[in-house]
């Protein structure tokens, strides 16, 4: 039995079904189209697939052209200032659609609108926005659309007091071979720079049986790449009765038939256990890529970030993964210019980067987030942050290029991702270690595994010939 309090009740979901019926009646026969703009991480991508699922259910056609939409929704991110600025500029651009056609409905959701000051800003400065709501209220989208169609009062809701999981929402998946599977929501870690715990609420895990049913269904339908999503998947199950772990979940997934890869997004080093590493190493499904956010190589900064591991512990996890999983690849997240970061602290980061030799790095210049502890700490000057960022990129590019050159001459299995944007006959694919491989072909093998012989490489990709 699981903690019943973690789930949205059947009655509440039934209420939303009634709103869906009301919308269907209102828009029937009108050929209404909906446009959803998604910013932010995979959690938001996954949420947008649920949003599109609900929209299709009530009769909207999904469009990629905002100018022809009757319903526009921006699913926002708040992780850095840049993400918020982009969201506000997109919302701003929607103004003239409403001016041309007052029947258009405009909504905003996601992490940015889970913050009071942003919700109020939209309410007061963007009068044409019909509603905005926080991340935990996603399942109430039908209710918000319905009241906007009735031209009722504008609605601005932050989040529920105790965010819960809504099971059973329809998912309109973008891809027919690559899928996100949320295994948990929220975060308990309160890293001092990060807004996520404030906008996504506390950790709550889905029931293992619901996750396994979803993975089984995807595998049965031929999905080839399944990413288990959560802000810290390593603490999966702590809130469930019986306390199943991420290792238990991986071991159960290992028993599911099908030719698919498994990715974890994201693992927190403080909870990376040997059981989890063993469950990855022994899995029947390829799990050869590990994203392990480091943030900083300095013990002092890691402490001030509230990360609960040090450089030595991080290196020992990397060693364990390298020794147990053959040809494992590593990626990481780095924050440059966290408050108090000195030249020596930054050099600790460069040192660990040279020691681990990551395949690639997502590096970010620290962006102060209102409401987080680091916002009030003494800031590093902008020009110092930018100079360090450039140095980090230069060193990492060299390492990535060296690693990529070692692939030349090898034949590797890749999952084909589709045509490259720039070149008609060139396809893009990913290795089991999540490295990008471009190759030429007259045949479209999108969504299948093929073998490619690598002929050359650069910092960002491998290039090869289909075998
Ligand atoms: N839950 C994941 C991270 C989610 S956010 C984890 O703990 O690993 C993705 C990345 O954004 C983080 O790893 C961090 O590197 C970066 N990030 C978060 N807050 C930031 C901020 N205020 N400024 C700059 N980068 C930030
Ligand atoms: Fe943010 Fe830290 Fe939670 Fe990741 S673990 S979402 S960085 S607070
Ligand atoms: Fe952004 Fe929210 Fe993800 S803040 S990074 S969309 S969890």
CATH class of the largest domain: Alpha Beta
- Write the CATH fold name of the largest domain: pyruvate-formate lyase- activating enzyme
**So, CATH architecture of the largest domain?**
Alpha-Beta Horseshoe
Can you tell me the CATH superfamily of the largest domain? tm_1862 like domain
Bound chemical compounds:
S-adenosyl-L-homocysteine, iron/sulfur cluster, FE3-S4 cluster
Largest beta-sheet characterization: 6 strands, parallel
Shape by Cα distribution: globular
Count of discrete alpha- or pi-helical segments spanning 4 or more residues:
14
In spatial order, strands of the major sheet run 2-1-3-4-5-6
Poorly predicted tracts of residues: none
- How many structural units, i.e. domains? 3
Beta-strand content bin? 15-25%
Give Rg in angstroms.
23 Å
What is the average of the pLDDT values? Answer: 96
For the secondary structure, the number of strands is 19
Q: What is the helix fraction of residues, given as a range? A: 25-40%
Keywords:
467 residues, binds iron/sulfur cluster, alpha/beta, globular, 3 domains, binds FE3-S4 cluster, 6-stranded parallel beta sheet, binds S-adenosyl-L-homocysteine, 5-stranded mixed beta barrel, Rossmann fold, 19 strands, OB fold (Dihydrolipoamide Acetyltransferase, E2P)
Describe the protein.
It is a single chain. By secondary structure, this protein is of the alpha/beta class. The protein folds into three domains: 4-157, Methylthiotransferase, N-terminal domain (Rossmann fold, 3-Layer(aba) Sandwich); 178-404, Alpha-Beta Horseshoe (pyruvate-formate lyase- activating enzyme); 411-466, Beta Barrel (OB fold (Dihydrolipoamide Acetyltransferase, E2P)), CATH 2.40.50.140. The protein contains 14 helices and 19 strands. It has helices at residues 10-27, 42-57, 81-93, 95-100, 116-125, 141-149, 196-200, 208-220, 246-254, 274-281, 299-304, 311-324, 343-356, 382-405, and strands at 33-38, 61-62, 71-76, 105-110, 131-133, 155-157, 178-182, 184-185, 204-205, 225-229, 261-265, 289-291, 329-336, 360-365, 411-419, 426-431, 436-440, 449-457, 462-466. The strands form five sheets. Strands 2-1-3-4-5-6 form a six-stranded parallel beta sheet, sandwiched between helices. A hairpin with a 4-residue loop joins strand 16 and strand 17. Helix 1 runs parallel beside helix 6 and helix 13 (343-356) packs parallel to helix 14 (382-405). The radius of gyration is 23 Å and the shape is globular. The N and C termini lie far apart (50 Å). The mean pLDDT is 96. The structure holds S-adenosyl-L-homocysteine (SAH), iron/sulfur cluster (SF4) and FE3-S4 cluster. Residues 187, 189-191, 194, 196-197, 231-232, 268 line the site of iron/sulfur cluster. S-adenosyl-L-homocysteine is lined by residues 79-80, 193-194, 196, 231-232, 266, 268, 293, 295, 333, 335, 364, 366-367, 369.
């Amino acid at each position: 039995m699981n903690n019943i309090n973690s789930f949205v009740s059947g009655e509440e979901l039934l209420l939303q079904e009634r709103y869906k019926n009301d919308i269907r009646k209102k828009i029937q026969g009108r050929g209404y189209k909906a446009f959803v703009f998604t910013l932010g991480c995979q959690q938001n991508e996954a949420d947008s697939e649920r949003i599109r699922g609900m929209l299709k259910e009530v009769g909207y056609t999904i469009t990629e052209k905002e100018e022809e939409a009757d319903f526009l929704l921006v699913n926002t991110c708040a992780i850095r200032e840049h993400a918020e600025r982009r969201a506000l500029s997109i919302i701003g651009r929607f103004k003239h659609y409403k001016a041309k056609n007052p029947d258009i409905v405009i909504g905003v959701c996601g992490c940015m609108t889970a913050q009071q000051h942003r919700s109020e800003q939209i309410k007061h400065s963007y009068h044409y926005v019909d509603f905005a709501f926080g991340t935990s209220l996603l399942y109430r989208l039908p209710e918000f659309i319905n009241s906007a169609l009735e031209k009722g009062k504008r609605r601005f809701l932050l989040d529920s007091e105790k965010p819960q999981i809504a099971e059973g929402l329809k998912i309109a998946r973008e891809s027919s071979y690559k899928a996100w599977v949320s295994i948990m929501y929220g975060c308990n870690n309160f890293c001092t720079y990060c807004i996520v715990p404030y906008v996504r609420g506390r950790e709550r895990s889905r029931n293992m049986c619901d996750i396994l049913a979803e993975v089984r269904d995807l595998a049965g339908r031929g999905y080839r790449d399944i990413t288990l999503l959560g802000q810290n998947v390593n603490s999966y199950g702590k809130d469930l009765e019986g306390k199943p772990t991420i290792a238990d979940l991986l071991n159960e997934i290992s028993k599911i038939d099908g030719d698919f890869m498994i990715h974890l997004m994201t693992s927190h080093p403080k909870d990376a256990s040997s059981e989890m590493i063993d469950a990855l190493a022994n899995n029947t499904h390829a799990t050869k890529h590990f994203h392990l956010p480091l943030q900083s190589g300095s013990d002092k900064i890691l402490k001030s970030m509230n990360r609960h591991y040090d450089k030595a512990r991080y290196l020992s996890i990397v060693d364990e993964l390298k020794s147990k999983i053959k040809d494992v690849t590593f990626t990481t997240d780095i924050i440059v210019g966290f408050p108090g970061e000195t030249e020596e602290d930054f050099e600790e980061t460069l040192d660990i980067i040279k020691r681990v030799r990551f395949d690639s790095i997502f590096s970010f210049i620290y962006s102060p987030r209102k409401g987080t502890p680091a916002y009030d700490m003494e800031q590093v000057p902008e020009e110092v942050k930018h100079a360090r960022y450039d140095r980090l990129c230069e060193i990492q590019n060299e390492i990535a290029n060296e690693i990529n050159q070692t692939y030349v001459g090898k034949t590797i299995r890749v999952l084909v991702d589709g045509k490259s944007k720039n070149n008609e006959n060139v396809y893009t694919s990913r290795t089991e270690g999540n490295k990008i491989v471009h190759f030429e072909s007259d045949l479209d093998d999108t969504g299948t595994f093929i073998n490619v012989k690598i002929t050359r490489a650069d910092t960002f990709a491998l290039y090869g010939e289909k075998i």
